[in-house]
């Protein structure tokens, strides 16, 4: 009897289809891997070696950039490349002799190679003013100026350990800001402004009320029309309500800005994964170069580079020296905003893979 092949269009194709033949052959059979130089890795398997060249990407990328990358992959890497979770571009080469010409051509096109081991890898970020309605700051602009400032730490491996930076442009944190060594987080500081004249026509009241994670929105009536009110003490300026109700904008050019968080990591190595904690509660939005933000981030990176022990992540270093010493060394002012009111302690304490309850 003829077999019937079942096909569905659900989900992506199996990743197996896109693996380099050397990776396929050696899957689960690798002997070791090593770093040959900044941005270049070798994985040695039973039947061959694969060389990885890691390059930066500007994250929001143009068609021209994609054409450049795919062209270089075709020329030097048999067409094999991948984007990492932080949007580094990794070329997978079967031929060692192609490493130098590939790096030269990347460099000729202004694309740096690095981001491995004791360096800063590409900065992961969210949409920013380019694309999201909730943004309290830009994301790609901020990343560009921060990486311009920290370029040397991408192309050289001179930090105590790997350093991950993330940017999210509002509290919804689409980026990995809760679990990166240094996080730049856009924040609103004012509650939504309600346009009662358009809200009844634009928004569905039950959906708007349900959109608030802090139960700050209640239905009300103004001049006979059903609308909503916001309990400002409960509002945490997340912008969720604006997502479902365009009559509740909260972007504010004067009050929106940026906060800096430190000490997060996803890795289980040595110590358990950690959430970031507040370092700087507010810095102004000052495009196009955000000098206050770049200076603050560079300061933290340099103090960490100078004081941490080898293989200590930022959070591990801070835990060893203590937070008072961290504030002393970095010169960051300790304010009332650094005090935790433990409101969310029940759901945020001890949520690691090592210990759950
Ligand atoms: Fe939009 Fe906030 Fe996500 Fe940025 S972090 S893309 S503003 S929801
Ligand atoms: Fe609620 Fe967030 Fe809207 Fe404030 S901004 S009212 S917390 S949904």
Question: Can you walk me through this structure?
Answer:
- The chain has 357 residues and is α+β, with helices and mostly antiparallel strands.
- It folds into three domains: 15-109, 2-Layer Sandwich (Alpha-Beta Plaits), CATH 3.30.70.3340; 120-189 and 253-347, 2-Layer Sandwich (Sulfite Reductase Hemoprotein, domain 1); 198-244, Alpha-Beta Plaits (2-Layer Sandwich).
- It is 27% helix and 19% strand.
- It contains twelve helices and twelve strands.
- The protein has a five-stranded antiparallel beta sheet, covered by helices on one side. Strands 6-7-8-11-12 form a five-stranded mixed beta sheet, with helices on one face.
- A hairpin with a 2-residue loop joins strand 1 (30-37) and strand 2 (40-45).
- Helix 4 (140-149) packs across helix 9 (291-307).
- The longest helix has 17 residues, at 291-307.
- The chain is globular, with a radius of gyration of 24 Å.
- Bound molecules: iron/sulfur cluster (2 copies).
- One iron/sulfur cluster binds next to helix 8.
Secondary-structure topology with pairs:
Elements: H1 21-25, E1 30-37, E2 40-45, E3 49-55, H2 63-76, E4 81-83, E5 89-93, H3 99-108, E6 124-125, H4 140-149, H5 151-155, E7 165-168, E8 182-187, H6 199-202, H7 205-210, E9 217-222, E10 225-230, H8 240-244, E11 257-262, E12 277-284, H9 291-307, H10 314-321, H11 323-330, H12 345-348
Parallel strand pairs: 6-7, 7-8
Antiparallel strand pairs: 1-2, 2-3, 3-5, 4-5, 8-11, 9-10, 11-12
Bound molecules: iron/sulfur cluster (2 copies).
């Amino acid at each position: 009897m003829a077999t019937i092949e079942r096909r569905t269009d659900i989900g992506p194709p199996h990743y197996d289809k896109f693996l380099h033949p050397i990776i396929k052959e050696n899957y689960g059979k690798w002997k070791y891997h090593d770093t040959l130089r900044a941005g270049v890795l070798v994985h040695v398997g039973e039947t061959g070696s694969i060389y990885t060249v890691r390059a930066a990407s500007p994250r929001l990328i143009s068609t021209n950039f994609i054409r450049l990358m795919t062209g270089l992959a075709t020329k030097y890497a048999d067409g094999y490349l991948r984007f990492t979770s932080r949007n580094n571009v990794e070329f997978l080469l079967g031929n060692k002799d192609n490493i130098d010409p590939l790096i030269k051509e990347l460099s000729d096109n202004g694309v740096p190679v690095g981001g491995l081991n004791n360096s800063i890898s590409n900065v992961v970020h969210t949409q920013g003013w380019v694309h999201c309605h909730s943004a309290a700051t830009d994301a790609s602009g901020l990343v560009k100026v921060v990486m311009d400032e920290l370029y040397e730490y991408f192309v050289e491996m001179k930090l105590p350990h790997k350093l991950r930076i993330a940017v999210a442009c509002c509290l919804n944190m689409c980026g990995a800001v809760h679990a990166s060594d240094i996080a730049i987080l856009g924040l609103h500081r004012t509650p939504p402004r309600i346009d009662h004249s358009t809200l009844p026509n634009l928004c569905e009241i039950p959906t708007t009320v349900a959109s608030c994670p802090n139960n700050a929105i209640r239905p009300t009536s103004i001049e006979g029309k059903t609308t909503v009110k916001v309990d400002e003490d409960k509002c945490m300026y997340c912008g969720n309500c604006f997502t479902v109700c365009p009559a509740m904008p909260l972007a504010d050019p004067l009050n929106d800005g940026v906060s800096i968080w430190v000490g997060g990591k996803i890795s289980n190595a040595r110590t358990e994964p950690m959430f970031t904690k507040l370092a700087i509660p507010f810095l102004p939005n000052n495009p196009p170069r955000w000098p206050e933000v770049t200076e603050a981030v560079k300061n933290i990176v340099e103090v960490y580079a100078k004081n941490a022990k080898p293989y200590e992540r930022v959070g591990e270093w801070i835990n060893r020296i203590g937070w008072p010493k961290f504030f002393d060394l970095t010169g960051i002012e300790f304010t009332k905003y650094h005090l935790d009111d433990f409101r969310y302690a029940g759901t945020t304490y001890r949520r690691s893979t090592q210990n759950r309850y």
